[in-house]
Amino acid sequence: MRLRVPAVFAAAVLLWLFVFYGTPLGRDYDRPTHAARAVLTTVLVVPAVVLARRLLDRRPWHGLGLPLSRTAARRFLLGAVCWLLPAAAGFALCLATGWVEITRREPVAEVAGVAAMLVVLVFLYEALPEELVFRGYLQRNLHTELPAGQAVAVQGVLFMLFGFLVGVAQSPFRLFVFLAFGLLLGAFRVATGDIWAGIGFHVAYQSAAQLFVGEGAAFEVSGEGAFGVLALGGLPFLAAWTYLSRRHRAALDWSATAP
Questions:
Q1: Which of 22, 107, 137, 185 could link 18 by a cystine bridge, Cβ 3.0 to 4.6 Å?
Q2: b/e string for 159-192 if b means 16 or more Cβ within 10 A?
Q3: Residue 3 burial (C-beta neighbours within 10 Å; 0-12, 13-18, 19+)
Q4: pLDDT for 1
Q5: Residue 222: is its pLDDT beyond 70?
Q6: b/e map 27-49, b = 16+ CB within 10 Å
Q7: Does the pLDDT at position 2 exceed 80?
Q8: Residue 101 belongs to what H/E stretch?
Q9: Confidence class for position 258, pLDDT limits 50, 70, 90
Q10: How far is it, in rounded angstroms, from Cα 119 to Cα 230?
Q11: DSSP state of 62
């Protein structure tokens, strides 16, 4: 574990850097480039994790926590709903109080198309590969030697470091968001036993973030601070943790190790 974890972490960082800097796609944002990067990331990262599991760990696929079964869709929807319901409440509060103003930049039909596209691209570019690397491979390997709580904490720190190294978390605030996000997604893995709920939560959160405040956003938002806390991150993260700690209390054994 001591060699496999840093090796796979370093490989993940290098693969993401290659996708962004080492290809002829360019660094400027446009949607075709976003789509190409998303597909390339999944094509490179997912097989790399599978090979690491097979060649380095010599353990079966199911240890990665990505079962291809009927439960996958239910767990995915569970994670998405854990973000969507409190985010909707926070969104309504922001608008009702006047703390946030939102202006549409594109026609309604185009906004719907962009939202649908972002769900697919976030799944391919961030949610699936990042969850497979951090909560699938790294957290599983850490959990075989460390108690669950420590495994979640270490992968959360690695996720924050990953954000810094690939250039998407440079400020203290962004580093904190990456850490909190990684810890919460790690808790989803412990609570549910796989990474599908984390993928669903990841897709919902990142799709909305990119739809409203990301590069190429379809809306212009004033009052991003309140919007980020109540509608995007703070309130949904807290609500999801509250749900996990109550609904899945029996599964959240932070002192247990994995076989």
A1: 22
A2: bbbbbebbeebeeeeeeebbbbbbbbbbbbbbbb
A3: exposed
A4: 60
A5: yes
A6: eeeeeeebebbbebbbebbbebb
A7: no
A8: strand 101-104
A9: confident
A10: 21
A11: G
- 0.90 exceeded by pTM: yes
9 burial type by CB count under 10 A (0-12 exposed, 13-18 middle, 19+ buried): buried
Question: In sequence order, what are the residues at sequence separation of 6 or more whose Cβ sits closer than 8 angstroms to the Cβ of residue 201?
Answer: 79, 80, 82, 83, 184, 185, 188, 240
Point out which residues pair with 102 in neighbouring strands.
221
Structural tokens at position 107: 């026609």
From residue 10, how far is each of 65, 66, 138, 241 by CA, in Å?
Answer: 21, 22, 11, 29
Residue matched to tokens 């840093």 = 6
pLDDT digits (tens, 9 = 90+) for 108-142: 888 999 999 999 999 999 999 999 999 999 999 99
259 vs 43: which has the higher pLDDT:
43
Distance of CA 122 to CAs 82, 97, 131, 216, Å? 17, 30, 12, 14
Listed residue (188, 191, 220) closest to 204, CA to CA:
188
| pLDDT, mean of residues 146-161 | 96
Contact call for residues 12 and 162 (beta carbons, < 8 A): yes
Which two structure tokens, joined as six digits, stand for 26? 């360019």
pLDDT band at 225 (very low <50, low <70, confident <90, very high): confident
Cα 54 to Cα 45, 68, 101, 105, distances in angstroms: 14, 17, 50, 47
Q: How many whole angstroms separate alpha carbon 54 and alpha carbon 146?
A: 22
CA torsion angle for 14, 156, 248, 122 (degrees, to 10)? Answer: -40
